[in-house]
Design goal:
heterodimer, A: about 450 residues, alpha/beta, 4-stranded parallel sheet, 18 helices, B: about 375 residues, Rossmann fold, 15 helices, globular
């Protein structure tokens, strides 16, 4: 966009730069299959991508579509259409982006020309929602199916125990695991009905094996960011989540994450960071501004790098016995939720996530992260239209303050660039970094 | 119209100071008082366990800045208002806190509130969003966990018979509320919507038997009122939680009558009796989960989920619908476009009031209501 203050993020890794070739190949394969009228599922994060693969389904992720519309600066048009249709600007902008897209799609009978993917998101055959993280995610598909595409919907409903309940109590565990198991069975029954296929458990096990292999590389790569200087940045991080959604369970994904691990390992061995002089090592909270990923490069130009991002983090706890692949999915979900719960979930949304990423940093985890990643500050993106992720940032700020770690909360949105105030935000970020410079109590400056 | 459009005037008239009220209840009943928010954790269970359920409410239009130390500015203004009250110590007299996981914001409120201001007893009553058979089973198990936690706190065992006694009492109150609703429907000047809401709000802060007494008194009062039977536009109010009569008064001052609603402290709570079942937890599950029509529960795609509302509109001869959405109230804001279009198709006028739980600017709201009532 000519004259825009927004800039694309510059990636530091060769592997993540290569995604520019890899993903279009994948999307073209999907498009070819769409032309053959294969059933297409629209899905929410929270749906295990391994299940989609096991049913050999075509799928779209409207949330991720929102990030692409944001980065190409076409989201405002779709959002405006939805706002004019009565969907409040307070609602999640991933949602309003989709609703505007759907309205234009229905009016034109095809994807609007601005759509970022080739052919946009196609006509769904059914919708697979999820209650993980927030209620807008199932309300969203309820509305899509009511208003635009009269297709069947299944929304999974994984609940997690409240922060002050002991999830290790066998009765509590059974209470929640029973719901998770029965909900997964319902989801599979729905998929079997829609596709006319029976779930092949052996195939699912193979897919899970590959998926976890890829995720293990991803997890180990992230752990390498403990190194000073940090070998990869947030632009790499946020782009590298995409293969987890679209290619999980493929050998291609395993190869991608292995290559990335090897590249990052090599950078660590050679002491290569992403900036010449690493002055500040930060933690990022919240969704990124997808329309202006260049903000991370801007901070890097001031010597500030993020060594950890709380959002989309796979964490380090998904090793499960795959002999019973359905139980493995349930246990993976529970194990990760409980790990986060144990770290303090008082300000958390729903934690039970049957998918492969979506982490948050529990308040007690902060101590470990600050020490392990040598962090001296935190930046939190308060997204006006996403309360699920940004609610709790004030609490996190309070917790960090107790440990003497300064933090900054700035406001904007993940999809809608109209909520970005470039000069103001950059001024605030700069001033924050100056505060860090003066904060000799920060860990980086300890003698 | 300046005075009648001043929401503060109404609010001050109606609201009692929460703290005093809690203390008065405790001193009188010599029982623990447990605050609760949202409608999924049955107050019948709290009563059966020997405690007094006390409905938590906000103070519309109050300064919410005390919440800033705990909560982000972009969040439900109602939740921020409650948190501000909590931060100012207005609820510290409570012995316990029960919040049902109705919407995301309320779930987050529970964690933050109890982290910074713990109570001797607190419980987040978890509620699924789907109404599948397994969600139903989860809810029923959750009821038992809730009962156990109450028993442990109060030391009072909740037998099925004891619980049924409370259900009978609460059902008596439901019937009395419906009787009053009927008096209003027959002649809205006899029992104004705002008056009824005030009674229901008071009932949320009273033991069930005291509320029964109040309802009986008011029923007699309303039934005996002579009125001029003026012809006014009959309004149904749909939307987010309303715990202040100011909006209803504005509608009344604009020449309308609130004859029905679709809100939490209204028809959603009082329209149906809780079914008496051999296993009382079956009835509680049906009433408080399956049949409780808050849009936070998924009723599936399609417009048939509003059939109940169209029936209500017909039954109460409604001329128009006023929607009320508190800012950042996702469940209602998602439903609004579909409901608006459905009502338009049925030729039922609708006006949406978007508010940050302040009913301000009052003049503007009043003007919009007046124009709407004139239009219909």
């Amino acid at each position: 966009m000519s004259g825009s203050e927004m800039s694309r993020g510059r990636r530091h890794l060769e592997t993540t730069r290569k995604m520019k070739d890899m993903l279009p190949r994948f999307f073209m394969r999907m498009l070819e299959r769409r032309f053959n009228n294969e059933p297409l599922a629209w899905c929410m994060v929270g749906v295990p991508p391994e299940l989609l693969k096991a049913f050999d389904l075509l799928f779209e992720w409207p949330e991720n579509f929102g990030t692409m519309c944001a980065s190409r600066l076409v989201a405002p048009k779709f959002i405006e259409v939805a706002n004019n249709d009565g969907y409040s600007s307070e609602l999640c902008s991933y949602v309003t982006n989709t609703m505007g897209y759907c309205k234009l799609f229905r009016e034109r009978g095809e994807a609007p020309p601005e759509s970022p993917l080739p052919g946009g998101m196609g006509t769904p055959s059914f919708l697979l929602g999820s209650g993980f993280i927030c209620e807008p995610r199932w309300k969203w598909f309820q509305s899509v199916a009511t208003r635009f595409f009269n297709v069947p919907v299944y929304s999974s409903d994984p609940l997690a125990p409240p922060w002050d309940t002991d999830p290790h109590d066998p009765r509590i565990e059974d209470h929640y695991l029973t719901l998770l198991r029965e909900d997964l069975a319902g989801q599979i029954e729905f998929l079997e009905q829609q596709t006319g296929k029976k779930l092949d458990l052996d195939l699912l096990r193979e897919i899970l094996t590959l998926s976890h292999k890829a995720l293990a590389y991803w997890r180990d790569t992230l752990a390498l960011r403990r190194t000073v200087p940090t070998p990869m940045g947030s632009t790499d991080y946020f782009h590298a989540i995409i293969p987890q959604m679209y290619l999980v369970g493929d050998q291609e994904a395993v190869d991608f994450y292995r290559e990335m691990y090897e590249e990052v390992r090599d950078r660590v061995d050679r002491g290569i960071g992403i900036v010449d002089e690493e002055k500040h090592r930060l933690i990022w909270f919240g969704l990124p501004p997808w329309f202006n990923m260049g903000i991370f490069n801007y901070l890097e130009s001031l010597g500030a790098v993020f060594a950890y991002e709380s959002t989309y983090n796979v964490g380090d706890y998904f090793e499960v016995d795959l002999s019973d692949p359905l139980e493995a999915l349930v246990r993976r979900t529970w194990q990760r939720a409980i790990k986060m719960h144990d770290y303090g979930a008082e300000a958390m949304p729903e934690l039970c996530n049957p998918a492969v990423f979506g982490g948050f940093a529990g308040s007690n985890l902060l101590n470990e992260l600050i020490a392990d990643y040598s962090l001296n500050g935190a930046v939190m993106h308060l997204t006006r239209s996403c309360r699920a992720v940004s609610f709790g940032e004030v609490h996190t700020k309070n917790r960090l303050a107790k440990q003497g770690v300064p933090s900054l909360i700035f406001e904007s949105d993940m999809t809608d660039p109209r909520l970005w105030s470039d000069a103001q935000i950059k001024n605030r970020l700069q001033a924050f970094l100056e505060t860090l410079d003066r904060n000799k109590g920060g860990r980086l400056y300890e003698e | 119209m300046k005075n009648s459009a001043d929401p503060g005037r109404y609010i001050r008239k109606v609201k009692m100071d929460g703290q005093e009220n809690i203390s008065a209840l405790k001193n009188k009943a010599k029982k623990p008082v447990i605050g609760y928010l949202c409608c999924f954790a049955p107050p019948e269970l709290i009563s059966a366990a020997g405690a007094i359920p006390y409905r938590i409410s906000g103070k519309a239009g109050d300064d919410n800045s005390a919440a800033d130390a705990y909560l982000e500015p972009y969040g439900c203004s109602y939740v921020r208002n409650i948190m501000a009250r909590a931060a100012k110590g207005e609820y510290k007299g409570l012995d316990g806190l029960v919040i049902s996981h109705s919407c995301d914001m309320v779930q987050r409120l529970y964690g933050i509130w109890t982290y910074y201001h713990p109570f001797p007893y607190s419980y987040l009553f978890n509620v699924p969003h789907q109404t599948t058979p397994w969600a139903r089973r989860f809810f029923k198990r959750e009821l038992h966990f809730f009962r156990e936690s109450l028993e442990e706190f109060t030391g009072c065992r909740v037998s099925d018979d004891r619980l049924k006694e409370e259900i009978y009492l609460y059902n008596t109150n439901r019937q009395l509320v419906r009787d009053i609703y009927q008096i209003r429907s027959d002649d809205p000047d006899r029992a104004k919507g705002s008056e009824i809401l005030e009674i229901l709000l008071a009932g949320g802060n009273l033991p069930a038997d005291s509320f029964k007494k109040l309802l009986n008194e008011k029923k007699v009062l309303f039934a005996g009122r002579s009125t001029a039977r003026t012809k006014k536009k009959r309004i149904l109010v749909w939307g987010s939680l309303i715990d202040d009569p100011v909006l209803f008064k504005m509608i009344e001052n604009s020449g309308g009558s609130v004859v029905a609603d679709d809100t939490c402290i209204g028809f959603r709570t009082w329209e149906n009796d809780l079914p008496i079942t051999a296993d009382p937890y079956e009835g509680l599950t049906d009433h408080y989960f399956i049949n409780f029509l808050c849009p936070r529960t998924d009723r599936g795609p399609g417009l048939q989920k509003y059939d109940y509302l169209l029936e209500r509109i017909k039954k109460y001869q409604v001329d128009g619908v006023v929607g009320y959405c508190i800012s950042f109230c996702d469940p209602h804001k998602f439903d609004y476009p579909d409901l608006r279009d459905l009502l338009k198709e049925k030729e039922i006028p609708m006006l949406l009031i978007d508010d940050n739980y302040s009913f301000e600017p009052a003049e503007a709201i009043q003007t919009r209501l007046q124009a709407f009532l004139e239009m219909i």
